[in-house]
Amino acid sequence: MTVAVKTFGRIGEAAAALSAERGARFFGGGTILMRMVNEADPDVATIVRSTDPALARLAVSSGRIELGAGATMAAILAERDLAFLHPVARTIGGPAIREAATIGGNLFAHSPYGDFATALLALDAIVAIAGGFGQREQPIEEFLAGRDRGGRQLVTGVSFRRPAADSFRFVKVARIRPKGVAVLSIAAQLPLASGRISGARIAYGAMDRAPVRAKAAERALEGRTLDAAGVAPAVAVAAEGAAPVDDAIASAWWRREILPVHLRRLLLGAGA
Ligand SMILES: Cc1cc2nc3c(=O)[nH]c(=O)nc-3n(C[C@H](O)[C@H](O)[C@H](O)COP(=O)(O)OP(=O)(O)OC[C@H]3O[C@@H](n4cnc5c(N)ncnc54)[C@H](O)[C@@H]3O)c2cc1C
I need a surface site. Which of 134, 154, 173, 265 has the fewest CB within 10 A? Predict the structure, then answer.
């Protein structure tokens, strides 16, 4: 099967080409897409690319952070002001994958991939999208829930508020370290007010088809301290709402079994 490649200088042109054709797919770094092409996936008839530098921009301030969808994991790792995201980017594939793998592609990666998207869900990111309709923004939770439905839209970037110092935590459990695929990953934003949790956001990767929030655990943490007694109620409901699948990496049963152990360690700051 022949696959056409269309390259555009501007984001708007690429977005229009993407939404105009059912078989069009956007090329981020190609680490997933090129596998689909090599396997002659009939869903890929046209590859749409954009050379617009705006797609790769990183706008980092002490307040809001804006990351272009075309920014790679290697670019995140090269940005000192994004140090809190380095533990996430560093776990995605090996060095060659990280040079190519983009934030935009990670948002579309199916479980057990999607570690960066899991972090963005915990960070309450807003996803910027361009399509035939023009530009719009969508909360990441809504975006991930509807991601596999509807037409092809170009994600142009994500933005979120910088988390308070030391409030963001991430752990990835893999069979091979440091670059194995996730048995599960957990990202959490744990803001403290007078030593007690206020408005925690916790996200799981590989615990459903797309990253999901751990809403029961978030509720159970409200007003609690981050010590053994304080986190116990959240750990008890860790797997509530999660729907992991069996795959080559782990069974759904195993993922549910180990989730509370790793959530507890993450909340206590005890590492993986
Ligand atoms: C050996 C190997 C190891 C890997 N390890 C990990 C891992 O540990 N963790 C992990 O999370 N992932 C892993 N991956 C998967 C993948 O590399 C990452 O998820 C990566 O971030 C995907 O980004 P990409 O730019 O390569 O996506 P692409 O392959 O370019 O695209 C993937 C999908 O997203 C769509 N897409 C991409 N960008 C956009 C956009 N801006 N707007 C709309 N649609 C878009 C594409 O059309 C395609 O459908 C691994 C892959 C390989 C091959």
Answer: 134
Which ligand 1 atom is at minimum distance from the Cα of 155? Answer: 42
What's the chain's average pLDDT? 95
Question: Does the structure show a pLDDT above 90 at 57?
Answer: yes
> Domain ranges in the chain?
4-50, 54-161, 168-267
Whether residue 235 has pLDDT greater than 60: yes
pLDDT (mean) for 155-179: 93
108 CB burial (10 A radius; 0-12, 13-18, 19+) = buried
Assigned CATH topology for domain 54-161: 3.30.465
To the question of pTM greater than 0.90 for the whole model, the response is yes
Neighbour-count burial of 8, counting CB atoms closer than 10 A to its CB (0-12 exposed, 13-18 middle, 19+ buried): middle
Question: Is the minimum distance from the CB of 37 to ligand 1 under 6 angstroms?
Answer: no
Residue 94 has pLDDT above 90, yes or no: yes
Structure tokens at 150: 């509807």
At 150 the pLDDT is 61
Coil, helix or strand at residue 102: strand
Q: What are the tokens at 185?
A: 């990953």
Distance 7 CA to ligand 1 centre (A): 19
Question: What is the C-alpha to C-alpha distance for residues 40 and 49, in angstroms, rounded to an integer?
Answer: 19
Report the 10 Å Cβ neighbour count for 49: 17
Burial zone of 175 (CB within 10 Å; 0-12 exposed, 13-18 middle, 19+ buried): exposed
- The token pair that represents 206 in the structure block: 């590989």
Report the alpha-carbon distance of residue 88 to residue 5 in Å, rounded: 31
**Closest atom of ligand 1 to CA, residue 25:** 47
CATH no. for 168-267: 3.30.390.50
